[in-house]
Design goal:
By secondary structure, the chain is an alpha/beta fold. It has 26 helices and 23 strands. The two termini are about 45 Å apart.
Length: about 800
């Protein structure tokens, strides 16, 4: 069988540099001294047993016949008692593990029957025990501190030193393979010769007053140039915020937006919404109501700004859809997600200087942030500035583009049965600042999981599928390293990648767990949170603690994948099930991400000394899910996970049936496709539950269909270059379910804006993608029931 390395560093990766992990103790598995020792011990044990048997036989033959019978009866009775006791103990204790009981205590429960492989030497209960045994608290905290001692952006000396250290660490672990995958990407950095600026100018454009900015604060991929206009406060710059401004009759065209950090939208989404509203620039600041700003209580300094990229996409925006390998001849194009108006992060102090000068319409209810309360009583939208008529704000952005060599670092443990299927764990390595949360936590978890699984292999663990550990470069610029790799191997990943686990920003608190995940992984997540103790509530599982707070665990924990997540591109672009687990605070947020204050000391102080225990909890959660995926004969993924989503959309269409029929539109084919998909998913799930796991051919067929569920939802009717996030449920664009549902809502809210031709196209794109997913999931094309 092909190895993981040959699959991932073949002819398609012209820029990759493969390095075998056999140096410095990295010998091939199966020929090491540990295996030889076991063989010698086994041989000695057999010889001893044979010698003992010969002695007993001779003794029996020397006895009289009646004594021989007594000996025989005695031996048989002893064997019967021993066998009965052994079988009883095996049934009772086989695969025991820590599951959660009704009272919230951890109790032993057997594994679901039929999910382990006969060729595995260890059962899941033993593997879980081994995982907990080898996970190290001290190693995690030490790595976080070492990684976050200084800033290490891509292409810097510090970044290259860290890359070499990680590669060296992987090699020392006796991995089956280690290698690097290199790309050239265009990144943007602050200019060293011309600083970004803010000025108050008069009606003639003459500069009156400069508002100083920190030269290190910037928005990557902002266009350069100057923008001048009035200032409009737009709250979080969400779509609903601009809808509110339109309903108030406020004119946003030609103004510079000033927006708060947060609101559930990224910087790139804020800039896009402002651009659509006709605004000429965007300033983004951290409001104390969203980002704590009392340094004495571990808050952000009022002089600090938060930097973030503003590319509405991921990967190198100047090679959209193409991998940035060295030999690639790039066409002259750029991503449609690049903004057309300049953007700049500012501090709370700079924002207060601007906000106190605004005049105009009063803010809507709920828009007043804490900063407005500090500055003045009434919240004002703008756009006018106090002083002489015609005073305006001028912003200048002068960042520079630079090509940078990126290095993704890989290590793998090869699967014993299906080495061409792999479970991927990855974390970004770079950061603008020290990056304790942004890169330190993820890198520490990645190395600790790699070390733990490597140790488990040396002690008898044989994964059925391959494990892949990856350190990504240029994550702060929109997951550039990971996306370029995805683009390079897009045609094969849906056939080979079982799942992706993003370790980015995994620890920002110690109270509340969030899972930004593909629904296909829900059963895995549930199984893990049932078995792992909550870091703040010993003896109680995470699930039990969640349920004690009231509410459904899925609605409490599970959140949709978002654009800046390290997992997003894998599902929305690559069609691979992905998840990003994160511990956060239930009330407070960690305010230092993407700042110069994101240090290990502040993170440890924020967690009140619990950094190691929270890191261990996350390592155990991810490790358990990886174990199940690498150990079970049939992948524990739920193909029916999207049936309820489709049913909900069908009910939305039903509610608008009268309006649709009046326009000659019929949702009939959507209903048909939805029914076909639900039936196919249910049939596949039932077939798996009733399958014989000893039938390797059938299990392989089932696994292939389950692995490709997310891939089936990538629309084949839009270009991966022009619309990279083709997933109709998690993606972005006119082809998605969210765009279709939003357009459908106009039938009642704003019927004059409803575009029938556009809606017909959206309906067709969605329907045929869904029907294609149903056909693929059903398996055999000659068994598809699509009667006319």
């Amino acid at each position: 069988m092909a190895t993981v390395q040959s699959l991932l560093t073949g002819s398609g990766g012209g820029g990759a540099q493969a390095e075998e992990g056999v140096e410095e103790g990295g010998g091939a598995r199966g020929s090491g001294p540990g295996v030889e020792l076991r063989l010698v011990q086994s041989q000695l044990r057999v010889e001893e047993e044979e010698g003992l048997g010969s002695s007993i036989t001779a003794l029996v033959l020397r006895q009289p016949l009646k004594h021989r019978r007594a000996w025989i009866y005695l031996v048989l009775t002893g064997l019967l008692i021993f066998t009965t006791a052994f079988l009883l103990g095996y049934v009772v204790f086989r695969g025991s593990c820590a599951y959660c009981g009704d009272d919230g205590e951890l109790v032993p429960v057997d594994d679901p029957p039929g999910h382990y492989t006969e060729d595995s030497l260890l059962h899941m209960g033993e593997l879980r025990h081994m995982l907990k045994k080898y996970l190290s608290d001290e190693t995690l905290e030490d790595t976080i501190r070492r990684v976050s001692m200084t800033a290490h952006p891509p292409g810097s000396l510090e970044g290259n030193d860290l890359a070499r250290e990680i590669l060296h660490t992987f090699k020392k672990m006796r991995m089956d393979h280690t290698w690097t995958d290199s790309h050239y990407a265009t990144l943007q950095f602050p200019s060293r010769t011309q600083r970004n600026s803010l000025w108050i100018v008069d009606e003639n454009g003459d500069e009156l007053e400069e508002i100083p900015l920190n030269p290190t604060d910037y928005c990557a991929y902002s266009p350069n140039g100057m923008a001048t206009g009035g200032v409009m406060y737009v709250n979080y710059a969400r779509p609903e915020d601009f809808d509110t401004l339109r309903s108030l009759g406020v004119t946003t065209k030609g103004a510079i937006a000033i927006a708060r950090v947060g609101g559930g939208v990224s910087f790139a989404e804020k800039v896009q919404q402002a651009q659509k509203a006709g605004m000429v620039g965007v300033l983004i600041y951290p409001d104390p109501s969203d980002v704590p700003q009392d340094p004495r209580r571990l808050g952000l300094s009022s002089d600090a700004a938060i930097s973030e990229h503003v590319h509405l996409g991921s990967g190198d925006p100047f090679t959209p859809g193409f991998p940035s390998f060295n030999h690639t001849q790039f066409p002259p194009m750029q991503s449609s997600g690049l903004p057309l108006i300049p953007a700049q992060p500012i501090s709370a102090n700079v924002a207060s200087t601007i906000l106190r000068q605004l005049e105009g319409v009063a803010c809507p209810r709920g828009w007043q942030g804490r900063l407005q309360i500090y500055v003045y009583v009434e919240c004002v939208l703008g756009p006018s500035l106090k002083g002489a008529p015609g005073h305006r704000l001028r912003m200048g952005v002068y960042n520079v583009m630079r090509p940078v060599l990126l290095n993704n670092i890989f290590a793998s443990i090869e699967g014993r049965i299906e080495p061409d299927q792999y479970i991927i764990m990855g974390a970004q390595r770079d950061s603008w600042g020290p990056g304790a949360v942004k890169s330190g936590v993820g890198t520490a978890l990645l190395l600790e999981l790699a070390r733990t699984f490597d140790t488990m292999v040396q002690n008898g663990f044989h994964p059925k599928r391959s494990l892949l550990f990856v350190s990504w470069d240029a994550g702060d610029f929109g997951n550039v390293g990971a996306t370029e790799w995805l683009e390079g191997y897009l045609s094969m990943l849906h056939l080979k990648a079982v799942a992706y686990f993003s370790l980015d920003q995994a620890i920002m608190g110690d109270d509340e767990l969030s899972a930004y995940a593909s629904p296909l992984l829900m059963d895995l997540i549930e199984g893990a949170i049932k078995q792992v103790e909550h870091p703040k509530h010993p003896g109680q599982s995470i699930l039990a603690h969640m349920e004690s707070q009231g509410g459904n665990w899925r609605s409490h924990i599970v959140k949709p994948l978002y654009l800046n997540s390290g997992a997003y591109s894998f599902t929305a672009f690559g069609g691979v099930p992905a998840v990003e687990l994160r511990f956060d605070e239930a009330v407070r947020t960690y305010p230092f991400v993407n700042t110069q204050w994101d240090s290990a000391g502040r993170l440890q102080e924020r967690l009140q000394g619990q950094l190691s225990s929270v890191g261990r909890t996350l390592g155990e959660l991810i490790g358990l899910m990886v174990l199940r995926l690498s150990h079970h004969a049939v992948l524990p993924l739920d193909p029916t996970c999207y049936s309820s989503t489709m049913l909900h959309f069908s009910s939305q269409l039903n509610q608008h049936s009268a309006e649709l029929q009046a326009r000659g539109l019929s949702p009939q084919w959507v209903f048909s496709a939805r029914g076909d998909y639900s039936r196919a998913a249910k049939t596949l799930k039932e077939a798996i539950e009733n399958s014989n796991i000893d039938d390797e051919r059938m299990t392989r067929l089932y696994n292939t269909r389950i692995m490709r569920v997310e891939y089936y939802f990538l629309s084949q009717y839009v270009s991966a270059v022009e619309t990279p996030f083709r997933h109709i449920l998690h993606g972005r664009g006119n082809h998605t379910l969210s765009a279709l549902a939003e357009h459908l809502g106009l039938l009642r809210s704003q019927p004059l804006l409803f575009d029938e031709a556009r809606f017909r196209k959206q309906l067709a794109l969605f329907t045929w993608t869904l029907q294609g997913a149903a056909n693929a999931l059903s398996g055999d094309v000659w068994n598809i029931d699509n009667a006319i």
